[in-house]
Amino acid sequence: MPINLTLSLAAFCVGVIASFALPMQGMAWLWGLLLIGSGASIWITRKYRPRYVQAALTIFLFIFGLIYAIFRTDMALKNHYPAHINPPTQSLTVTVTGLPETDWDTGRTRFIGKATTAQGKTYRIQFQDYHGRDWQVGDTWQFNAKIRAAIGTRNPVGFDREAWALANQIDGIASVSKNRTKQPEKHSTLSFNQLRQKMITHWQTAAHDYPNGAGLMTALAVGNKSGLSYETWAALRPLGLHHLISISGLHIGIVGIFAAWIAKKIMSLLPFIPSRPRVWTLIIGAIAALFYTGLAGFNIPTLRSLIMLTVFAVTWITRGTIGTWRTWWIAMAAVLLYQPTATLAIGFWFSFGLVGTLIWACAFRLPEKETLRIYRYFYLLKQTIISQWAVTLMSGIITIYAFGLLPIFSPLANAIAIPLFTCLLVPIALLSSLLPFDFLKYFAAYLGEYTVSALVYWGNQLPELSFAHAPVSLLILALFGALFLLLPNGLRMKPLACCAIAVFALYRPAPPSGSLKIIVWDVGQGLSVLLQTPTRTVLFDTGTPAAELALLPNLRAANVRHIDRLIVSHHDNDHDGGLTAVQKAISIGQLDAGQPEFYADATHCSAGQKWQYDDVLFEYLTPTPQAEKDNDRSCVLRVSSGKHALLITGDLGQHGEMQLVEKYGNNLSSDVFVLGHHGSTSSNSTLLLNTLSPQIAIASSGFANAFRHPTQTVQRRLADRDIQLWRTDLQGAIQVSLDKQGFQAAPLVKQSFWWQKKTVLFWLNKSPFALF
């Protein structure tokens, strides 16, 4: 019986992908399944029953994919920097290997470096420098730094730093200290990253007059994204054009095809035609694509794109003897063999998902050659329209699920921008970077400047829709619905397919069933608390300036379309850092603040103000606004339902806490206490804890933060009083349900996967001080 290669490849790929969905605990059943499956496949093969050989091979390759991905990922995890809550400061010898990129808005410089510790261990670290210093690729420096494990926030949606680090082979992150010492230079050959840095330097003259234009050209030529401002990137999102402003797989493919086309034209002018011209054109195109990938720094996403394109190019030589779907599975298997953790990157799903969608939707051929040319053009136009519709539909579903947003004008913007970028701007950016002519760089920067201006203008005008985060089951139904919808007759199920997509897009989570639902979001070293009654929404603080990565995606996922009252405890960027982003994305009813002079249309959260939403009472207990320290001007909010209550004090210090106790006494009693100042010793006094008598305390702090919040002293105070401590730095976002009958607390994200470290650290931390 012949072996179905396509099915075999699919089994391996599905096994690799499935490995990342395995749970953290209770994996004994997995090993039992692997043992039984392996034994069954071997027994079937030995018996050699023709009907079952394919089934045995499929089972074997699925299991092999599981084991291979687990083994490779486990090896990568062992190479990561160990996770410590309080990482030590140590001396590092660092060689700059990645192209340094500086943010316009913050002045922060980021680069990838090869870091060697005093013990001789080597890690691939992403460094951040806030001192505005120059870093050159290939230079070696010695300085002190704290390497932190690549562990970030943990919420239902939003940026996942652990997945990002695995997908991009990052072993840890660190900030560069103020003092550094240059090490003697070692003789080395010119690397691609050094070439990239030299090309960026040559753009500096044009950048003086056309900063955004030069930034766009360096992004297209060498993948340097730091030349564009935050305003530009924000404006690109409603247009759906982020994928064009860098060296993307599309650009790599276009460069390879363009180089192959030029090679074909040159060969046609030669007095003789080389043997196997298709191979020569493929080789030249592949070299051009490889060189362009090098200009992107051989980063992981571009390498994945190069592997995928190489497989499709090689199958082109076979003149169609390998089927299109088989080629697609070969490309996926090649990428997953190279890097199983690619499945953790959203770019992987966009790349293979959209290419697969095009194959699915365009499974018909153009008319034969003898058909009139006008009809061939008609069918080509029809195929183009179907392709655009298919990509729009499938990318829209993936975008809604991954980001909770849909740029509704993205198809039109891409239809205009893709030809502009791929056929004009990318070639000009490459030629201007490679040729030593300043006038060409000025022309390219001038063209880029007006392109960016147009993009920013339209990006600020066009709307985007937000969506709640639907369950995986509805996503799968929507994907199948889209596939049925793209079939010529849809198997007569197109109405049902439209319903499946509509249910996915219109999904809304159920409103709180009890009196009050409280979510302390994991926003790193900051604070943001969502309080929802069945009909009203209150948000206390907006976290750090990284709201677009953590807070906003989760507010959209929770279907928060309107905030009845937004409370900003005080003017500090770990409490009000996300205010501008929240105000831009969500309508606000009333804005209260401890320091209202810093915000437009804000009122002071004065003590004595009370209001009721449904059967929940909200009350401000804010101390005197004349306090000298900003922290002591924090809003203090007490929320109660019946005899049970929650207290939030912002960054209120011990002096302010003493005023609260003196004024309210036992009326402060609260079951749930959000620790003041993220668990700092300057807050959370024994006097306040004794007065409150909370049963649980929640510390909103960042993993391995420099302040060591929550401090050991505060943890001892809680432990001495049998107060249960919940921590966002170890458990992620915390949800509390509170009503007249009582309260319940639990991590908002209950499911953890075996490759994630954050929740594992919490369960290992049996003692409050075990990880210190």
Structural commentary:
The chain is an alpha/beta fold and about 775 residues long. Among the domains are: about 5-80, no CATH class; about 90-190, Beta Barrel (OB fold (Dihydrolipoamide Acetyltransferase, E2P)); about 360-405 and about 470-510, no CATH class; about 515-765, Metallo-beta-lactamase, Chain A, CATH 3.60.15. The protein has 25 helices and 24 strands. Helix 7 (about 210-220) packs across helix 15, helix 9 crosses helix 15 (about 410-435) and helix 15 runs antiparallel to helix 16 (about 440-460). The longest helix has about 30 residues, at about 375-405.
Task: Quickly describe the structure.
The protein has 772 residues and is α/β, with parallel strands linked by helices. Among the domains are: 5-79, no CATH class; 89-188, OB fold (Dihydrolipoamide Acetyltransferase, E2P), CATH 2.40.50; 362-406 and 470-508, no CATH class; 516-764, Metallo-beta-lactamase, Chain A (4-Layer Sandwich).
What descriptors fit this protein?
single chain, alpha/beta, OB fold (Dihydrolipoamide Acetyltransferase, E2P), eight-stranded mixed β-sheet, seven-stranded mixed β-sheet, 25 helices
Strand order of the largest sheet: 15-14-13-12-11-10-23-24
Shape designation: globular
Coarse structural class: alpha/beta
> What is the CATH fold-level name of one domain?
Metallo-beta-lactamase, Chain A
CATH class of one domain: Alpha Beta
Known CATH architecture of one domain: 4-Layer Sandwich
Fraction of residues in helix: 40-55%
Main pleated sheet:
8 strands, mixed
Q: Looking at this structure, what is the CATH superfamily of one domain?
A: Ribonuclease Z/Hydroxyacylglutathione hydrolase-like
Q: Uncertain regions: pLDDT < 50 for 5+ in a row?
A: 766-772
| Count of β-strands | 24
Q: What radius of gyration results from the CA coordinates?
A: 29 Å
Average pLDDT, to the nearest integer?
87
Instruction: State which percent range the strand residues make up.
Output: 15-25%
- Between the first and last Cα atoms, what is the distance in angstroms? 61 Å
